[in-house]
Structure formats: C-alpha cells, structure tokens
Amino acid sequence: MTVGDTTSGAGEEPPSDSSVHATPHHEVDHTAEPTDDPLAIRLEALILGADRRYTPFQAARTAGVSMDLASRFWRAMGFADIGQAKALTEADVLALRRLAGLVEAGLLSEPMAIQVARSTGQTTARLAEWQIDSFLEGLTEPPEPGMTRTEVTYPLVELLLPELQEFLVYVWRRQLAAATGRVVQAADDDEMVDRRLAVGFADLVGFTRLTRRLEEEELGELVESFETTAADLVAAHGGRLIKTLGDEVLFAADDAGTAAEIALRLIEAMSQDETMPALRVGIAFGTVTTRMGDVFGTTVNLASRLTSIAPKDAVLVDGAFAKELVRHGDAPESEAQAAEEVAAAAERARLAEKEGREVVEEPPLPTYRFGLQPMWQRSVRGLGVVEPWLLARRGKTGS
Predict the structure, then answer these.
(1) Which stretches in the chain have pLDDT values below 50?
(2) What does the pLDDT look like over 307-324, one tens digit per residue?
(3) Alpha carbon 162 to chain centroid distance?
C-alpha cells in the first residue's frame, strides 16, 4: 500500500532551507554526510542491513509520500535534521510506504500515524541507548588484548543483533496481547480511555542529598537496583509499571488490593537493603485517563501529593482507595470493628458452652490483609481537603 501520486508530492523539489529529520539523536552539517568515520559507517550498514542510497527528498519521492508528511513522520520518530545528505536506505523508503499506506487505507488517521511514530521512536530510542550502554559497560575485558571498546562494538553488535531483534518482537507481542486483553475486558468504549485504577508513586527519600554524596557510578547502580526491584515486584504481583523517573516509579493496578500489596512489598524490600535510602509510597484510586502508555488526571496528581507527604518507610492512601479495600474485604473499616468481630465470636462460643449447648461452628471471621489508620485531614493545593490513611499489613501473606 502506498500513497497515490496525487498526494505523493512526486514532483516536489526539496526546499533550500528544508528541515528534514532522518538521523536519530545528533545534528549535523546539512551538506555533509552524517559521518565519515569508517567504523560508524560499517556499524550503520550492519544494523540497518543496507547502505546509504537516498537523500530525504529522494526517499520520500521513491516511497510516493509528500515531503511534508515524510518530514513529520521522521520528526515524530526523533530523527535529527540532515538537510539533503544521502543518508537513507531502502528500509527507510519501505517504512514510509507502510506508515503512509496505513493512512491511505483508512486504518490510521494521519494524527494517529504521527502518534504511532512518536511513541515507537521514544520507546526504542531509550531502549537502544540503554542496551548499548549496558553491553559495553559489561565488557570488563576485550575479546583480544589491545582491543579498544570502539573496536569491540562491531563484533558485539554482530553477535547480539539477530537475537535481540527476535527477543524485542517477542516481548512486544506479549505486551500487545496483554494490553489488548485489557481493552477487550473493558465494560465499554469509555472505559478503554477513562478507567478506574489504583495509581501509586514510590519515591526514594533524600535522593537529592545522595546525588551530592555518591560517585556517579554508585548513584547509577543505586538507581538501577531500585528500578529493577520495583519493576520485578510490580510485575510479579499483577501491577503495571507505567514509568521510572530515576528516584521515583509510577505504577498502576486494576484493584486496590493489588496496589496495596505492591506498595508494602516495595517498602519491605527497600528496608531490607542497607544500601538503599528510605522509601515512601502514595496511592490513590479513581478515574484515570490512559494515553500512549501513560496515565493522567486528578487521581494521578493526588497519588503524587500523597507521596510527598508520606512518612519514611510508609504508605499513604486516599479515602477512595481505603473504601475499595474495605468493600472487597481486604481491610476492616477500623481496627475497632475487627476487634469487635473477634470479641463477638468469642462471646457467642462462651455463652453456648455455659448454657450447655453445642457450640455451632460459625463461618470463619474475615481474614483482613491490610489495616488502615486515619491521618489528619489536610488541604492540598489544587485538590481541596484530602483525608489520607496510613496503610499497613495485618498478618502474613504468601509470597
């Protein structure tokens, strides 16, 4: 599928001051090749699977796409301005044809195609940077004596590229299946965009002071350890990690019980690691707008504010979250209520025994996983009066 010639701009001439984006991450001279480094050129050919062949204008014309639309696609994908340097390959032409073809066929609107390009570009840019940094960092010794890290890069990429490509597609399909499943299970179309979720922020306390005290390498290791622990715990207990922000992670869960378990597990895991600073967590429950993998709305803002006022090694939740825990039997309305239930059951058994009646076996008392302690109400700027609750664990749960 390609865009027809009537909209392709096939007869366009490249504008003399065109702002064309086609090479990720670095700005270069508009008239020069993006790089003359032989190793960089070899690496590029290895990764892209083809040599440079087209200028941006030639690529757009060959793909049958207007220069304006091609530029917007490239810009959305995060490609830097290269003017009309010959830097593009057959793969770039094919990608333009496919994306523009989806628009022409009516499968995607043009704004949606731009969003697809932008979200894919942002996600893969971060992934690529992380992978290269991590792989090169892990090379404590070169394969052969005297080899530099630059010289090691080519054989490393050559070995890893096919495996990582297959793995990337596999993980993407798995995540797509999970996301599609959530959409199918939504009650209606509105719930696909605006959903009731538990949203939590987990924040390392005193991180700014740590940045002044620790060496860069130590700080990097601490952040990586925190993000890894958080990601593992969130996934293991049924939540979704929305994003990581260095000293803070944002997660979501479909129900309050899941979010509460994740929050307390995070506190417990961090408190057992002597190298980690204290952690605090804030969670709110309510309607959340989901867009491009992120979450927005008052509920998210409230969770963030609760985190900022939470004590060290503690979890603060809002009133709506507390009510959800009570409604699903995960927490008593109050500790007094829980104590009354136990006392009432014991009194019934005592009276039956005293009167010589057979003690009737009663249904088991609720086994509450969590406890809630009301805190002082406070006014939060932009959100009105907030009634925070301190969340704690009642009894032990399985791993």
Answers:
(1) 1-19, 25-32, 396-399
(2) 999 999 999 999 999 999
(3) 25
If one counts every other C-beta atom within 10 angstroms of the C-beta of residue 336, the result is 9
Looking at the chain, list the stretches that DSSP marks H as alpha helix, in order from N- to C-terminal side. 5-8, 38-48, 56-63, 67-76, 90-104, 110-137, 149-185, 189-193, 207-213, 216-236, 256-271, 298-309, 319-327, 335-354
**Using CA atoms, how far apart are residues 353 and 83, in angstroms rounded to an integer?**
92
CA 222 to chain centre: 19
* Nearest one of 206, 196, 154 to 313, comparing CA atoms: 206
Which pLDDT score, from 0 to 100, does residue 213 have? 85
Which tokens in the block code for residue 380? Answer: 């939060």
Domain range summary for the chain, segments of one domain joined by + = 5-132, 139-185, 192-328+375-393, 335-367
Give the list of residues 6+ apart from residue 302 with CB closer than 8 angstroms, or none: 282, 284, 286, 318, 380, 383, 386
| Residue that has been written with the tokens 């409230």 in this structure | 302
Element (H, E) at 240: strand 240-244
Fold of 192-328+375-393: Alpha-Beta Plaits (3.30.70)
Q: What's the chain's Rg over C-alpha atoms?
A: 28
Label residue 219 left, alpha or beta by phi (over 0 means left) and psi (-120 to 50 means alpha).
alpha
Whether pTM > 0.85 for this model: the answer is no
